[in-house]
Amino acid sequence: MDGTDMRSILKCVRCGTCRSVCPVFDVVGWESSSARGRMLVAHGISMGLEADKDVLDCLNMCTTCGLCEQLCPSGAAPPKVIEDTRHQLVLHGKMTDSQKELADRAKELGNPLGEKKERMSWLGDSAKDVREKADYVFFAGCLGSYRYPELTKRTFDILKKFGVTVLQDEVCCGSPLLRTGSDPLELTSKNLEQIKKTGAHTVITGCAGCYTALKNDYPGGLNVIHVTEFLADRLAEMDLKKLDLKVTYHDPCHLGRCNGVFDAPREIIRTVSDLKEMRSSREKARCCGAGGGVLKGYPELSLELSKRRLEEMPEGVDYLVTACPLCRTNLKRGEPKVEVLDIIDLLEMAMEQ
Amino acid sequence: MQNTVLLEKLQEIAGNTRVSTSTANIYCYSCDASQIRGMPDIVIRPDTTEQVSKIVKLAYENDIPVTPRGAGTGLAGGAVPVEGGIVLDMSSMNRILELDLDNLQVVVEPGLIQEKLNARLEPYGFFFPPDPGSSAMCTLGGLIANNGSGMRSVKYGTTRNYVLALEVVLADGTVINTGSKTMKSVAGYSLTDLFVGSEGTLGIITKAILKVRALPGERSVMLASFENPELAGKAVVKVLSSGIIPSACEILDSNIIQAINAYDPGVGLPQAGAILLFEVDGTENSVNEGIRMIEDACRSLAIDIRTAANKEEREEIWAARRLVGAAVSRLDPLRTRVYVGEDIGVPIKEIPRMLHKVREISEEFCLPIMTYGHIGDGNLHTGMCIDMLEDKDWEKLNLAADKIHRTAIAMGGTVTAEHGIGGARAEYLELELGKALDVMIIIKNALDPKGIMNPGKMGV
């Protein structure tokens, strides 16, 4: 464990503030499922505590949503400590089957989903519009490429009008590996090399996981913006009409709380519709339950987290909008009363009118 | 009984999913927010009184220690199983069983979070007044077992003042009910009062009937700044003897002011040697008069007086104040707040002298001591931050804490006004209580002859 992590653990005074906000603790109820518990266990591991299955579950059930860090009075940073502890354990061969599968698939296939088909096939007839050089490059992400290919194509079709290109041979950004303790170096190097080749000064992504990985974990300090940030600055050029719709917005943790992107999605939503906020929003938004490897590793827990987030929806909205395909996927699993849209879907409705 | 047989029996009682011997849980239930440590053998999250009774009976028959735990936010090790055995995590018994507001009372289970009770009461215009800094996470059972209080105790008193009746599981598993639903009762010894503040050493609280109060129509918060804490202490004595009873009267020294501003820059407290935060509640007229009387009492001693502009500003100040105990850790990246010697109480007249003594102790040990707390009832929290990797710092910390405790006792005060004795302060009980401690031991032996109820706590 590095010195920074030990200092962070020592900052925790075990006051329990995190118990009152940790969404996983709210569902599971055992002390080991709270941020405070995980900090204790991480400390224990640094002192020689044997990492058995229970210990691995304790650490891996965290979605790394960061609400604990946001509200921690004493300034501890549990998500970083948890990720680093996962990494230390993985280095010693201690990981769950789910962690191993994520890492193996990503390294072997370039995506953690186990998809073997051509990644860039989402481009369809837009393949001809891919430029070798551009100032901006759109990073589609694994979920974008394989689970939401039509949305991804439509997003690119909007972006290409502004001179944006894509990578020719994109692979997973490395986020699932980074969050679950594996080494993403092969993937990040491959993407980074291609990004450099395009000459782009900025990477655009529509996924919160890709956003935080590209921005905070790639070497050299990439300039990364979310697709909503890019488009919020260009709304005047898009001939949009206001829709007679009320929508609510789910802040993806790794976009909002972890990186401060709160306003751009809201600006787009308010331009084309009426926004009614969820019970918790912005810095204090509750997690959808998918991140940190939890959807893959603990699907039942993840589903319950989704349902509890959905309980925070306001009445009388037509859609639940979000800005991350992973959040969207898990929120859909929770079976909300209304359809879950990506913010680009909403924007397109306003363009089509 | 063999461990595996015992485990099976416990699983039979509470259900498999409510009994844990996992490495992670054993580790996580080995401490609270104090420096006391002890590993449990088994952790159980019971769901009903019947389960608690059966578990305790089984523990009694097998001489197994039982340590009840709420949210584990305690600062004295009360919930730490220092002799191993079973930890009963009561936090899933968290239901509000009855809102009986015509009788000004509620019936609750012990695992209910304080703030959740108040959120439920607010729409009806009622509240449960004991208001600790940990109200967002602490359980009512923990509050009752420690007789906790908080910022509004200067006017509203401690948890004890709000407990009408209890359901308690005794050491042999017997379930008793103490007190009554009436506002007054003198039928027999006040066993309710015996269990309030007994820290799980006499029985396990499984249900409580609590008094609630009507929410005041108006509140106002006033901040008075002083050159030093001693002058603030003098102002408190003057305010309280002027006849006004504020609903809160808190002191913040200069380091605490800095810590609050660091945690929430929006609060923007003025820098001063000390600030007194006064809150007055009641009707519009009584609040205005109360604020005016406090201003009059403080004027000759304070360097600045101002009133919070609106409800938002008032709530932001209180929210930051609630968490400042931990937030002082933010002042130095290498130092962490350690809860030792942090909860003394002195008679109101002695407040300025105690504040002066704290300053002397701080200088003697070259250890910054940050003072805050419910000065209106003589309860001072002395916050010490150390580099936890430095043995020297630990030594200084413990020496300073010891001196703070002994100084408080010498002034006719107490080593703990609201956090409890637990395993952290038991050594001072004889000095503070004298022969009364012998009576406590007699009571303990009568109710818990095998010594299984939260052993190693409270000096009994």
Describe the structure.
The complex is a heterodimer of chains A (353) and B (460). By secondary structure, chain A is an alpha/beta fold. Helix content of chain A is 47%, strand content 8%. In chain A, strands 2-1-3-4 form a four-stranded parallel β-sheet, with helices on both faces. A four-stranded parallel β-sheet of chain A has the order 6-5-7-8, with helices on both faces. In chain B, a hairpin with a 4-residue loop joins strand 5 (96-100) and strand 6. The model of chain B has no long low-confidence stretch (mean pLDDT 95). Chain B is of the alpha+beta class. Chain B folds into four domains: 3-90, Uridine Diphospho-n-acetylenolpyruvylglucosamine Reductase, domain 2 (2-Layer Sandwich), CATH 3.30.43.10; 92-214, Uridine Diphospho-n-acetylenolpyruvylglucosamine Reductase, domain 3 (2-Layer Sandwich); 218-327, Alpha-Beta Plaits (2-Layer Sandwich); 332-418, Alpha-Beta Plaits (2-Layer Sandwich). Chain B has helices spanning 3-14, 23-28, 49-61, 114-121, 140-146, 153-156, 191-195, 229-241, 254-263, 284-298, 311-322, 324-327, 351-364, 391-410, 429-433, 436-447, and strands at 19-20, 42-44, 66-69, 86-89, 96-100, 105-108, 126-127, 163-170, 175-179, 203-211, 213-214, 218-226, 248-253, 274-282, 304-307, 336-338, 344-345, 369-373, 379-386. Chain B has 16 helices and 19 strands. The A-B interface holds A 7, 10-11, 13-17, 19-20, 29-32, 34, 36-37, 40-41, 44, 49-50, 52, 54-55, 57-58, 72-75 and B 20, 22-25, 27-33, 43, 45, 71-73, 89, 91-92, 113, 115, 134, 136-138, 263, 323-330, 333-334, 336-339, 388-389.
